[in-house]
User: What shape does this take?
Amino acid sequence: MSASGMHYAPKGKSAPVVKRGEFVFSAVGLYHGHIYGMCNGLIEAGGVLKSYYDADGGYADAFAKQFPQARRASSEEEILDDKEVVLVAGAAKTDERCALGLRVMESGKDYFTDKAPFTTLEQLELAKEAVKRTGKKYAVYYSERIHVESAVFAGELIKEGAIGRVVQVVAFGPHRLNKKISEGGYRPDWFFVKKHYGGILCDIGSHNVEQILYYTGAKDGRVVCSHIANYNHPQYPELDDFGDAQLELPGGATGYFRVDWFTPDGLQMWGDGRVFILGTEGYIEQRKYMNLGEKNSSGGHVFLANGKEETHYNVEGKAGFPFFGELILDCLNRTEKSMTQEHAFKAAELSLIAQKNAVVLEKK
Assistant: This one.
């Protein structure tokens, strides 16, 4: 169980795709707990975590406890100058992730960043230009699909034609806010400043936009409408505690998602993430992290109904996380099997547009 999505770091089975030492990576920017899941995934796929750095000693100390095999670098430059390091993983403050990525790519390394990868459309354009100029990757950790077994398995069912052509994806991404670190909780002060975190549709919403594009197979989309609100946190005036958006996709498919910071304290998990995927021949529901009403329930629930069957799969510990091995091989072979650069950037772009154009709902 996890009380905080910020510290959700799944561990899977070891499934190396390379021999030890063939893929060496480092971590720079340890502000968000997702860095632990990012590193876990790469290590399980055969990567070697050589070193890490963060200007904040507290974050570096905590990271050292989880990954004692890695060396603490004296500076970011030490890592960027290390010719053995192929990729740098980072979970810096959200508005600093693009700048870090530019430095990483300019140093001749691939970059793997936590979501949201950008807080502005201007940052996105800078990253596109840098990718084109350097030939390096700007990979994104959209964890709610690539690091969730029910999401992985649902994708395989769709590829097999289990529900026909996908015509709609509806995703719900509730999260538990907790308190600021200064108040004994989990969220740092910068998280509540919109300039730093980008807004709820930019942040959590990027997960959901990515899933909508992936499950429908769309390469583009249009934000029909979007909303944000601060319904119940006046002490954090720049926080969006609610957001939603409607997407229209080429070929006629649609997507809708809702994200919020209203997970109640009585819930056993930090968020009851759900995805509903409607096809022309059936539908799929994912219950990603828990099964509501089951004490100490696990995640990994996938429900399928089509012309042949009505089935409940529990894929916890079975589906695995193939993204990380594919990313390693993509970096070594210069391929795009794990996720295309176009897809990673398009998910970010649509979430940024949704945030920028969102109607602010007034609290009644």
Observations:
- The chain has two domains: 5-141, 145-321+352-361.
- The mean pLDDT is 94.
- The domain at 5-141 is CATH 3.40.50.720 (Rossmann fold).
- The chain has eleven helices and 15 strands.
